[in-house]
Amino acid sequence: MGIQRLATFSLLAFSALMLSFCGGGSSNNTQTSSSTTQSPEILYVVNNGTVFTYSVDPNALTANAVGAAVSLIPAEALIQFVPSPDDHFLYVLWNDAQGKEHISVYSTDSSGVPQTPAAQTLDVSSLYQFNIHRSGQFAYMMEVLNSNGLFTSQIRLFHVHPTSGILSEDPEIQGSYGPSYDWPAALYGLSRDGSKLYLTFNSTQGLEYRERSVNLRTGTLGPDIGLYTPGSHWGELVIGQKLLIDDYRPWNQSGYLDVFSNAPGPSHPIIHCTSAMFSACETATNVQLDAFGHYLFLTDPNTQSIRVAQIRMRTRRVVDTGGSFPFTAEIPGFSFSPDGTLVYAILASDNSVHIYGFNPASGALTPGGSALALPPSSGICPALRQ
Hints:
The protein contains 2 helices and 30 strands. It is mainly β.
C-alpha cells in the first residue's frame, strides 16, 4: 500500500517494492488537492482481483459501500492498483497465467466505481512500478533487463489521454542504470509537488538515492543528481517535500532517526533523535511522514502502537504528541488519504479498517465510527474524487 520507501537492507526492500499494492504517485504516498471544496473521499478494497468501492464520510469517519463489487483481473494476479489523481481512471498492473505483466486501464463512474471492460490493456512485461504524476498527464515505469546475471534498468515515460485515460509510451528512454550485479534500479516515487522523480540505484559506492527534475509540461526528466547515500547501515529513508528522514538500525546497537534537509548531498542532520529525545526513535520502524511534512508516524513495537510525533525545526527536536493508534495487521498497515486528512489503518486486533481523522495543523488524531471488516487477503487503496 503505497510502498514508496526502500530499506537499505536491499533484498527485503526490493521485494516489498516489487509487490507494492496501492499507489505510486508520490514519495510519501500523499497528494494534496488544489480544490477549495470538499472532494469525496473514496476507499477501494481489492480482494482476489475483485474491487469493492466505498464512499467515506470525512466527518463521521465511516465508509459506506457504493455500487456492486466488480471483477477486474484474475485472482492472485494483482501487482499494483493505482487510481488517477482525480479518480476518473484506475490503473491495474497484473500477471497473467504465463507470468507476463500487463497494465489495464478502467474508467470509473461518478461514484468511483470501476467500469468494465478495460478501456485498454498493454503488455508491459519487464516493466513494473507504475507511478502516475499528480497532474494526471503522464506516468513512469521502470523496465528491468537481465543479461547473464547483470541488471540494466530503464525509466519509461507514458503519456495519458486526458479524456480516456489510456496510455501511450514515449519512444525516448528517460534514463538508464547499470549493468549491476546486485539489484536493478528502482523508482521511489514523485515529490508531492510533482517537480521531482526519485529512484534508488546500487552503484559501486553502495545504495544511492537519486533525483530527476520533471518537466511539468512534457513529463521528460532532467539530469540525474545524487540525493543521498546512507552508507552501510540497515534502515529506511523517507523522502518528504522538504525533509529526508533516515531511520538508522545499526547492527547490535540502539537505533535513531536523523532528519536532514531535502537537498542533494546533506552532510549533517538537522535533528538527531535518540531515545533520550523520544523513546520511539530508538526502536520504531515503518516510518511515515504526513502530507505536509510536520509529523512522523512510527510503528513502535515497545508500545504495540503507531505513535505520532511532531518535527519541531525551530528547536530541533522530535516531540511525542501523545496521539497513537493500535498495532496494524501488516507493514505498513496504514495509509493516508490523498489530501492527508484521514488515516486508514488495518488493525491487528480485528483485521478491519479503522478510519481516523488527522488534523495536519495540530497533529491530533480522531478515531472514527464503526470499522470496515475486510475479506481475507484484501488490500486497501484510498482515492479522492475530483
